[in-house]
């Protein structure tokens, strides 16, 4: 039996004699045993495969002198914990375990928190696995005799239990791992004993049932004796397991360290899987269920993997029914876990639950997993795809043996493909078909690549009694079919899912080639009739026309499919003639581009067809345009429509094809010029003419960039480009908004393309083409942005019928405005326009943060990389503009608590945060910002006459937001520069109107001793937000002083002749605004809370106070807290709020592990009327479970 109270097991009475023989060895333990112990630790450390022989040697040593051998084992565990102390023979004989552990704690190396289980590096890579293997082999080799001697196991378990309760993390972690692996090894022993007992019982029953003459009484007695011995051994093993479970697991599964909690949960899963008869019951399952609410993803992950091992075995399903009903909702909620690994395993667990029984999961539970097939995280989506496939597609129609294989719409896949279409339509995420296909690809590739069946469903007539696909279903099927073709041809996930292309294996490459060959053979024949059937449906045709992009075009020649190619070209030509939709025309253009590949023999045939089509289109356009311009105001709508439709087709083809052979610039420029002169040109004609002319110039530039260019070509392009830019500038004042937006976008693109950067990369010959916008053009572009981008949402949206349509229009309008702003910001970033124009953009940062905050912030970041000082001047200029606008609106006597002024202060605070924490990199920029701000504050005299504050003095309150970014020496310099603008009377003023000056001076003087203090934004719109203090940087070295001298040239005259003495810190309550919460001693800085200072005031008392390192868990929360960004490592438990509550829970507790009788739950109000809850965490609360906090080692 194990000894209670943490004592080692007593030696038997007859073992004193051995002590005399081993006394000398124990006394000389450090000398004689040191090498043996080192060898034991080193073997485990190196991870050698000689573990069996090492354990056998230790067993021989134990049989010779068990005290010496156990001492070796004890020191082995101590050393594995990273402790350099050694337990001597005298300590082993005379001291209790608690005293030994206390002594080892004192000898622990406090300089490093690392220990073998946490040390990184190749030397310690296999330590954990070798350590666990050693314990497993040790128990396995001792399972027939030594573990039953009531000494060896008692001593080891007692030691590990004591170490697992230590305040030192290394002891606790190592001993918990050892104890859990020891328990696992004992579970294996108990399982073997159980099997042997069953066999013995069977043999006994068989022998006893024999006839009396044939019955062997001696054998019956031997079997009875053997069964008795096995029963006694099993009782001993159960006692050992109880001791480990109650002494270690019950405490450590809620340890403050996540790794320790994870070890416990991982091992209890192993026990339940190995020895389900003993452990797979609610008394043990409850620990896994509770811990699924752990705040650390690592622990939650172990819970799920432990449960997967149980649900995988269908024979265990009956024992999991209560657990499943109790914790199913929690598992379902974990599919949305913030840790993707946890979400993946939760979905896989639900898939196993689905396999075991189809009745547990409700339709609502399944739907919560279904939508995850559209997740951007690919592992989550693939796991959800497997769940979906198991649920919806696992029931196939069985095929009769010997019957011919059914193909097309009669194949078994036909109904499954229809089911996929129905699911896609019901999910209402029609634009995510590629995500759905990718999610199902790994588990259902065979189904998704049954293109023959899909083609049959689209082309063939339905069978008798079969319901035909609706138009909407056919559209969805074509989209899914296109996505499957793309996935098979490209072999990588769709955009937005996946981390880039990976290297394919030889098998994957062969599969890819086979799939491309098969799809080309199928669709080369089927695509022309599909296009013919759906020729009038723009959406279907657009998707079908993308299929040739993934063909192996060589198949057209090798497979003798030229007639199908001719048929395809005829269908495309007819579609171009029928449609004017831009998407359809661009799809036709891309298809021609894919087929016009000079590497293949079909090039000439396709090129001829393309040229014939374009000749007809251009001739028709020139003829129609001439008639249209001649008619002028007399032109009717039909003439305009003919011009527009032809222009649309030419523009769509010009996007992908070089049409330089047809002089389109002259005709389009003439059309645009006529539109400017007459002012009545239809807007769509102007928009497409602008786009077509833009393509003409880009194709011309592309040809000049590729090789040697003639001077005449450069001159021609230069004239065309500048004339077109002037034309776009004139269209910026057009009455039609769509025309203005098109002209603005094209103008920004041209200015960026033809900027000074076009000559980089060895293209100096293009320098004559460089074009810099004039000031008037820059001003017009900026005005366009201010008038068309920074507007209220309602001003730019046309109301439509239906709230959903109206919302879609608003989103589309916002997307368009974001593109316009991004186009202009690129001009700022690439220095096409002056950086100071960005001030009008930056000042909108707060007001339009939700719409354009990311674009403006990225622009600020890029401009700072280009020129830090100029960027800072632009930021302060934007604040000055806002301040002037506020003055013109509110007047000079405005209230500094007004929303307008608070908004400017908040904007300044946001600007300050963008400078980051590295003050050395930004010191010049920050210094220049303060210089401009001070000059602006004192620029205009007081409107009240002499003696009053300057007009812009309140701007210093805004400027103080940047004081925290100044280095210490720069604060003094800025303060001296400020005093150049101050008079002696200003320093004596104490009225409210002078508070900005006082606040700003204090923010500069507070940094004389600590340059890291920031001035609090008392009127900040964020209200009660508290800014965290930064650590004080090291004192400036000679190097930094040298840098400061270079950055302070602006104030070098000030450094010589300060005008006045620095004013003292002001502590009068009359000038302190209670709303700001300022402390007297910190001058505008938040004081340190008293409770934060307390631990540092009494360090001795802090160490002597009884500490607790366990943490309670909040088992009552379900599925909400885990989805939040909470970085606390420990979970909380509402039941641990009072000691009295715990004492009540302690009374009447029964700790019989093998048969735990749990009390009903009394702490969940929502379950007060239900049956007793057998998974209530109150069932394990007692004093031994209360938390012990750790020392520095935690």
Automatic annotation (TrEMBL):
Residues 249-334 form the SCD domain. It comes from the Eukaryota. Residues 1072-1081 have a biased composition (Basic and acidic residues). Keywords: Cell cycle, Cell division, Chromosome, Chromosome partition, Coiled coil, Nucleus. Part of the cohesin complex which is composed of a heterodimer between a SMC1 protein (SMC1A or SMC1B) and SMC3, which are attached via their hinge domain, and RAD21 which link them at their heads, and one STAG protein. Component of cohesin complex, a complex required for the cohesion of sister chromatids after DNA replication. The cohesin complex apparently forms a large proteinaceous ring within which sister chromatids can be trapped. At anaphase, the complex is cleaved and dissociates from chromatin, allowing sister chromatids to segregate. This is Cohesin subunit SA. It comes from Lates calcarifer (Barramundi). The gene is STAG2.
